[in-house]
Amino acid sequence: MRPKKQDRPKSNPVRLIAYCGLYCGDCPRYGNKTSWLAQELRRELEASGFARAARTKTARASGYKGFPAFWEMLGMIAGFECPGCRKVGCSVTCRIRPCCIKRGFSGCWECAEFASCPEFRWLRKVHGKGVAHNLRALARKGPKEFLRGKRYWLKTIRSQSSKVKAQKSKKREREGSQKPEVRS
């Protein structure tokens, strides 16, 4: 369950625009209530003795076989929170944030080289062209106007959405033309 907006930390929306052009407020890790709930569940499972019982019965009872993977996943979720790029950065391997800070930029959109910057390669794996789209919008409109418009997070750019819609439409057409024969 993703926290409701009123449950998430309050911050100046402009301060939630990451140096790379992503918007921290759109990130599932920012103000993550799920992380806290996973921590609480782990504590409760330990306190009730369930975790200990599940670990000892793992080899014998099929109902507990998945417990180690479940416990590991809870640990991952428990650590899956971020206070935002401008506070600490979302990744220790990110070189975008230190670069902007060093150059005195509010974000990459202020840099003339952002379109060809090699530092975005690792972001493209998850965010596709969304980061470049956001940076162009930020450079063109500025942060306040950018926040009023469409922001991209994952690889869901309009052109990709259009391709998916076109594929679904073609599939429906094919399925419609393959109606079974009616025998009398």
What is Rg?
Answer: 23 Å
Low-confidence stretches: 1-8, 157-162
Helices and strands, in order, run as HHHHHHHH
List how many beta strands DSSP finds.
0
Overall 3D shape: extended
The helical percent reads 40-55%
Structural class: mainly alpha
* Strand residue percentage: under 5%
Give the distance, in angstroms, between the N- and C-terminal Cα atoms: 53 Å
Mean pLDDT: 80
Describe the largest sheet: none
Q: Which features does this protein show?
A:
single chain; 184 residues; mainly alpha; 48% helix; 0% strand; extended; disordered N terminus
SSE layout:
Blueprint lengths: L32 H15 L2 H8 L9 H12 L17 H8 L17 H7 L2 H12 L1 H6 L9 H20 L7
Q: Your description of this structure?
A:
- It is built from 8 helices and no strands.
- The chain is mainly α and 184 residues long.
- It has a domain of 107 residues.
- α1 crosses α3.
- The protein is extended.
- The chain starts with 32 loop residues before the first helix and ends in a 7-residue tail after the last helix.
- The N terminus is likely disordered.
Task: Provide a brief overview of the structure.
The chain is an all-alpha fold and 184 residues long.
